[in-house]
Amino acid sequence: MKITDRDALLIIDVQNDFCPGGALPVPHGDEVVPVINRLSPQFHCVVLTQDWHPREQLSFASRHGKEPFSTTQVAYGEQTLWPDHCIEGTEGAAFHKDLDTTRARLILRKGFRQEIDSYSAFQENDRVTKTGLAGYLREWEIERVFLAGLAYDYCVRHSAVEARAAGFEAVVIEDACRAIGLNDSVEVTRKEFSRCGVAQVRVADILV
């Protein structure tokens, strides 16, 4: 698969709290780091996203007195409740120490509003509030985005689907992601990708 100047690599949330030993570890999450480091030099446009939550973020189970991974109703609908994670300015919110960030044109922080969680790099969970990423990519004349990182079935999934909704081609690099695997989230993700026209490839399809 040929990468051109109209392609961007979105590296989603490769942060300490999503890696082994973190507050919300994605199984084998650190395994994406060397893979992404091999991929990023292939792209002229690289964007990193970073969960950046206030301490009383709406999606934290501790705020509601409920168990992590349960759900609650909020103003914009059902919200999964998570362990406190990626709190702004903490080591947990920092990128994995081995992730090569030198090629990033943009670091996009998301989830920094106290009353709205944000999975997608393009819009927050209220499905109204935009992050500005779509406009940024259009300014660079990007037409297709490739996605890698954490977690396949949450922030990668929502970012890919919202990329399609914003008018971009979207390609998820499946073996450059890892999944949380909460209930049937992986199967739901694959079905949604098929429905929305999100392509899935392997690293070997790019590094030829």
UniProtKB/TrEMBL annotation:
Keyword Calcium annotated: no
Record-linked InterPro entries: Isochorismatase-like_dom, Isochorismatase-like_sf, Isochorismatase_Nicotinamidase
Pfam families recorded: Isochorismatase (PF00857)
EC number in record: 3.5.1.19
Sample GO molecular function, one term: metal ion binding
Record keywords: Hydrolase, Metal-binding, Pyridine nucleotide biosynthesis
SUPFAM superfamilies, alphabetized: Isochorismatase-like hydrolases
One BP term from GO: pyridine nucleotide biosynthetic process
NCBIfam families, alphabetized: PRK11609.1
Family that this chain belongs to: Belongs to the isochorismatase family.
Name this protein carries in UniProt: Nicotinamidase
